[in-house]
Amino acid sequence: MRGSLPISRRLVYKLRQVGNGTFGSAKIKVLILVFVALTILAISNRNRDGSSSFMGWTGDVDRSSSPRGRYSIVMNTWKRYDLLKKSISHYASCPRLDSVHIVWSEPDPPSDSLKRYLNHVVRLNSRKDQQVELVFDVNREDSLNNRFKEIKDLKTDAVFSIDDDVIFPCSSVEFAFTVWQSAPDTMVGYVPRMHWVDHKKENDKYKYGGWWSVWWTGTYSMVLSKAAFFHKKYLKLYTDEMPASIKEYITKNRNCEDIAMSFLVANATSSPPIWVKGKIFEAGSTGISSLGGHGERRTECVNKFVDEFGGMPLLPTNMKAVDSRSSWFW
Question: Does residue 258 have an active-site annotation?
Answer without folding.
Answer: yes
